[in-house]
Amino acid sequence: FSIETDLRRAIEKEELELHYQPIMDLKSGRVNGFEALARWIHPEQGFISPVDFIPVAEESGLIVPLGRWAMYQAAMTIADWDSQIAFHNMGSAPKIGHADYKISVNLSAIQILRDDVVGAVRDSIFSAGVDGHRLMLELTESAFIDDPDGTLKLLNRLKSENISLAMDDFGTGYSNLAVLQKLPIDVLKIDRSFVTDMGQDKEKNAIVSTILSLAKALDMQTTAEGIETSNIGCALKLLGCTFGQGYHYAKPLKSDEAFQFLSNSF
Ligand code: G
Ligand code: G
Ligand code: MN
Ligand code: NA
């Protein structure tokens, strides 16, 4: 069996689905949004992890249709959940959900080089009829290695479409602070390798505190990834981290479970 051949078919036949991991506003305790994570249920092989198929998609160029599919799916999900919430809240039953959550989609560095990302994003938000700021794109520092000027231009064009932007896995890559200062990034996502055991590890705790101060100086919000205990969540809230994501709140959820989670967060 070949991942590449089967992945081409999987994208056409809709064997892929997006799961959604809640991202919490640490101050209010409400859901701020969800990170969309691709899942592949292969008819014979069963579950295949994105850790295995995303690299193949990147090498083969299939990341372009896969990335477009993910953006479109995420935008349609926002439209679907919005209309379910609006419909429910017209009635007299207790209100559910809230109107301004975001869904974020991971963007691979190769997509930036090979696809017209602005065109793809425009198609998605236009088809779904949702405002650009509801869709967040997560990119990693590696996107700046091959073409820093092109990537900066792309981010500025996305921002002029009102798209929300996050820097993913921050702290693990090539952190050029001079470049970071120029980027129209809304959120810095602190990599989970620093967060998960910051309780037992003074150095990791210091790294997280430093990233939080840096983000504050640059007027960016922050998301800590990989929060697995309530103690770490509380500590991060006290340190001024804006958002939190991790198994302590929820793992990535199927679409209907994610909608339930949102409904319960009024
Ligand atoms: O849940 P987790 O095992 O899902 O994800 C593993 C990795 O796969 C993460 O680094 C995540 O960023 C990446 N990933 C998941 N879905 C997508 C996607 O739709 N596009 C890209 N480019 N990466 C994804
Ligand atoms: O690389 P990126 O940050 O896009 O990928 C997120 C990855 O982290 C996904 O594989 C997701 O399933 C995983 N993840 C999310 N929350 C936790 C957590 O609390 N602990 C661990 N170990 N992994 C997590
Ligand atoms: Mn991510
Ligand atoms: Na990450």
UniProtKB/TrEMBL annotation:
The chain holds residues 344 to 609 of 614 of the full protein. Residues 1-266 form the EAL domain. The lineage of its organism: Bacteria, Pseudomonadati, Pseudomonadota, Alphaproteobacteria, Sphingomonadales. It comes from Sphingorhabdus lutea. This is Bifunctional diguanylate cyclase/phosphodiesterase.
